[in-house]
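Chain X:
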Amino acid sequence: MFFATYLPQAAILTFVDGPIAFVNAAMLVLSESSTLILLISKWWWLDDATVEVFDAVLVQQNQTALVSAGREIKPTGGADPLSKLGKRLKKPFGDGLVKSLVRYVVLLPLNFIPVIGTIIFFVLNARNVGPAHHARYFQLKGFSNTERADYVKKNQGGYVGFVSLYQS
């Protein structure tokens, strides 16, 4: 990525950011590379493994009824929770990837604002990370989009690490 995109982005950012353009261009290329690696690994490798581990942890925590809403549970399987997992009944994590990619591309121009733009870019993208990681849980609980939004708003402090001022 650096060979193909760093110099053109640094040249463009020179007009906007001045002397710190080379640092901002490096951060931009690193962010783009991270996103591409995340998307590729999520599409081809991590999706299935993440669902298996998530469901196995729920089974281990005696949440078999919850997991059975999204997959078959074998009555026998020994002590290993993974061996109790059967065929999936619901496809996990439907639309989150496309939505997050569109959000990333739309917010990408914020990086043209020196220093503060990059910070705003990261904050706005990070707001969806916590709820996105809970998509399988919301799916197993049968939450609608409204219920998901209400749950996230109610528990927002847990997602951002502190109690939000927006909570009632």
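Chain Y:
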Amino acid sequence: MTTTPHTTTTAPGAAVAAAPSRRARIAGLVLSGLVVVFFLFDSLTHIANVEQVRTAMAELGFDPSLNRVFGVVLLICLTLYVLPVTSILGAVLLTGYLGGAVATNLVTEQPILSTTLAPIYFGFLVWGGLYLRDLRVRAIMPLVRG
């Protein structure tokens, strides 16, 4: 495999993906860091089963005894996302978790832009951060043609 400053090739003329620039990697780390901080806080409040979380989960129709389960599942997905070797798997699992949040918000008729679509916004941050910092993601999701 040969490399040029921004393109990796496996055969003559077959570009696989542009390697992330230093600025893109930093931007990806910042986006991913924001995702991690938010989800870490969210998972820990579920695990701690704080009153506000118990109330919110009950209002959404969930048995508050499931709070710790939600928190642990989110923490496992987040851990996989943070580890470079499993970051893509973590992003896929976080996407599924966020899809459940969208479905819950739709069923409970939450406001569309501010609440129902909020998990989709976080999904963009999850994948955007990973895309900016990880060559493997750029290879499977080539958003820019070379």
